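Input/output pair, single chain:
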Amino acid sequence: MKSGSNKNTLLSLFTGAGGFDLGLEAAGFEPVLCVEIDSESRETLRLNRPHWHLSSPGDIHKLQPSELLNQSGLRPGELTLLAGGPPCQPFSKSMYWSTGDSPRLRDPRANTLQAYLDVADATLPQVLLLENVKGLAFDGKDEGLRLLKRGLRKINKKHATSYVPQLIELNTADYGVPQLRERVFIIASIDGHQIAVPRQTHGTGLNRVPHLTAWDAIGDLDTDSWPEDLNATGRWAELLPSIPEGYNYQWHTPRNAENGGEPLFGWRTRFWSFLLKLAKAQPSWTIQAMPGPATGPFHWKSRLLSIEEMCRLQTFPREYAIAGSQRSARRQVGNAVPSAIGELLGLELRRQIFGDHVRRNLRMIPEHRPNCPSPEVVADVPHEYLKLRAKHCEHPGPGLGPSARLRKKVANQKTRS
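Output:
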């Protein structure tokens, strides 16, 4: 299947800081329009890619399909690729773990799935590409995926197309991204063509090279001094040095008491990212979009990651700059799809669907850095935290913790009243 023009056109929805689209651009796709509502993300795009056309307005819910086509300069059927990652919070697994459920389609942000379908109906792209968290199709709670399937069936009936959604789960570290990040990608082509899942290139197994690590990505930035605004703050800042590289608060639970940890917390009673630290010799943990004072991943030297380091771990181009405040920049980078995954999928779509002869190597992943130093020395637990020693109970399981029980109690009281 070939598109109707000589160039591979890309319409980007929920563009954010542009991580996904930078990779697709590197794979040979040309963004003709980017739809993004956040003002600081739009400034990031203007700063780095002034030739990318931003929609006006940026709110996808205020753009009529006809106006979107007009701004892109395309007619129905001329678009090569429609790509985007609607906000993932409604389908977050972390919310399910803490409360026993998540708003999912009840969350207003889930309306972006229908907006994506409306754009697909108007543009009839050769290929659809949608990114989201695994919770979009999470163990029987796959309302989002079912909404997409219903929407595509309606489009097929209306336009005699053959979009059949294909669900692909990837861990980005298995393809050379120096970060453990699990995501799902939904691909559908106008003629029903499906692709083979890209072959894993990194990790353990035949014909694979070792995972790239945090040291590979940011080791050249490692120093013993840093700006003051990268110092950890808050109640738990002084506890960070007592946690080894690659661990989180669970180091200080009864299960690790024999290994050197202190019984300060209950097992799995906090979010995974609580006091989470990078290890030099391992891929980074998933970069977070909304970090709090105790939310990692933190640098192995018990400080915050810089924006430059976060961008490296997300495989943004070296020269890329993020506009806005520190908080906004962290949100923009944390929400992004690693650019190298956009490059991977873009090349695979060109090769498998459009029949183009393209390279297989990714240019956006870092090179291996030799001579990785030993782990940082673990400090003693400061005296102020030792008062937390106790026989802490473990978390009872998804939706069974204190906050979930309290919500259920309040809901039952409202029902009875």
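The chain has a mean pLDDT of 91. Residues 254 and 263 are 5 Å apart (CA to CA).
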